[in-house]
Amino acid sequence: MIYGELKRPVTFHLIAGIVLSTIIVSAVVIAKYEKSLSDTTKRSGLIRTNALKVEQAVIDTDSAMRKIDGLLPSYYHSRSHKEIMLLALDGIKTAIKGADITVTNFDERGGEIILPVTISIPVDSYLHLVSNIGYLQSMNFPFFAIKNIVIEKAAGKPSDAILCKIEGSLRMPAKKVKE
Amino acid sequence: MRRAVAVSFEGEDVRIVYATLKRTGIEVDDALIVKDEQFDHFLEEERAKEFIVVSSFKGFFQDTVLIPPTKKRFIKRLIEAEVKKRSQFKDFSFLYTISGEKIVEHRRIKEVSVFAVKKEDMKDIVDRFVLRGKVIKAIYPDIFSIACLIGSEPVPFLCISETGLNKNMFLIKDGVIQFIRIAQSAEKGIRDIDIQNINMTVNYCRQNLKINPYAVALAGSVCSDYNVTTGTSIPVACLSHRMSLTRNDSLYLDFISPLSAFFVPKDRDINLLPGEYKNLFQTRLFLKYSTALFMMLSLIGMGYTGYIAKNIVELKSKLNSIRASLPDVNNTLTIYDTKKAELAGYMPFITSFRNATSIPDIQKFLSLLSELKTDTIRIDHTSITAGDNILNVELKGSVKTEGYANMQMHYQKLIDSISGIKGASIKGHRLEFRDKSFRVEITYQ
Question: What is the pLDDT of residue B292?
Fold first, then answer.
């Protein structure tokens, strides 16, 4: 039987085939494992980055809250809102000499307590006027929101007398901070 | 250009020729003769894998058979049946050539020249190669192989070659072997007794085959060993060939059988190798190459797997490092939620703060206004209205100068100065020549 001569090559062929099949299966399995491991590594990296971002956000939030606490007046928690507003109004009157301050009633809109204020300041120095407006704009708590400013000749006064009329409002949140 | 090895079994001797087949001819690299009993050892030592075999078969059947006209695919079966009937061979390989046609009893009959050899005769040769892992590309009968050197000459020749002491006489016409006769001889070369045999064969051809040989062509060693006292009835010549050989002529004469194997045209089917051996060699070759391919792919696969395994080790190391530096996520999220809830208590303040700071800096704008070139300009009225991230400003006043041109020039200077303020843009302005008054509308961001 001449085909008996094929026994050796067939055996080698089969062994080579089995080895190749095993290697292919191993390669496929190992490639899938590598992909899954790669995904896990990427996700773990993302989790670490996000966790660090969250930690930084906590630090930033804490810092922002401390800053806000620093902006609040020392008597914020011991006085009522209206008292705080009126104390601020007294502060304006003290800071701006000769100012004629007119207020109307307290109002509550959009979660804020509002006290409309009109301030008339005789302008003897432009520098003082600019400084006074700067003071009003820099008020931290309560805030002074300027609506309108008119600088013009004062009616019924000497011809060179100038008057600055500032319309605005004192504002603060209706709800207490940290409540 | 490729290397080839031809082996010719000639009685007790085996002649082997190593050659390089080139487009321009054949370059014989080596030629040797080994004894038949030493040939198996030679094969075991030989590094060449493929061989062309030429053999002088002792028992063969050669005849011209007649077959009726039939379809091409049945011709082989008809010839096989006819050979079986005439030769009493059971298992054999055969070659055939349709040499002509005859009209017998008003029927067109094909004349077929047949040469058949028992498979067991071939098996003895082929198994020697198979058992030693060698491949036989083809087995040619020596007569047919030598006949290929003559080609398709229309003139009939009686060709004489030598195997051992036997003289092979074959009549060839139009490239078709018409008749073969093996004549025994007492010694090598051509002697008077061989001349008698030749003359008898020529007569046989004339009388029985009705073919008159033109000449006697001596092929191989019989050419150089020609010692006779009588002559032949037809001219005698040595067979030469246009083959290009780099060795001398004696090589050509001594090794004509193996050399002729290199000159068998591709279209001449004189290969006697049985189909099952052809299949065996093809299957073995296929298995050899596919095993090599599998091994090569296995190596590539192993390389790839190794590469991935290396990546896995790196990824695992990276993952471990990430895990080691990963903060306590649950704790971080709990702290974050607590801080978020705490920040919610500050939101009203933040909203109020945003609303209050949403208007541009009025102090800065007023400072910039004071820097305007207003030597001859008097501003009587300034109105600033806060909008959403914008200030709408209106300036009213008059130009304090003589002459319209000067008035226009100073007014234009004012307008240019305002335009030069960063963030300010003039929305409209008007100068009244009648009373020198002006009005400028500005937006500031």
Answer: 95
